[in-house]
Input
Amino acid sequence: MPVNYSGTWDMDTNENLEGYMVALGIDFATRKIARMLKPQKVIEQDGDNFIIKTISTFRNYSCSFTIGQEFEEITKGLDNRKCQTVVNWDNDKLVCVQKGEKNNRGWTHWIDGDTLYLELQCEEQICKQTYKRTA
Output
């Protein structure tokens, strides 16, 4: 059985957010604000069903999905694009592929101890983030 991701996670590190946001086409003002944020992830997992909430003082984003089931995702509050998204297990990692306007877009989550890792990818840019478990 894959790892349980449920919990509350506070951002610890954030590497190359600027490059990732430029690849997404996010405007300068929004990028400037986003670089100052330390968002929190709240993950609810029930087997292969997930709700992942990203909470910050600027914007919140929530995504719910079932492993292996493609769905239409509108990235409202992020880059406001529509994409076809599917998340699958790769051993204990969650691997997301988002097909739409941008190439090579998606993310990967994995846990090591009390650290949640997130790699966000768009075009040739990769943003690496870590989160520490708080609850």
User: Anything to note?
Assistant: The longest strand covers residues 7-15.
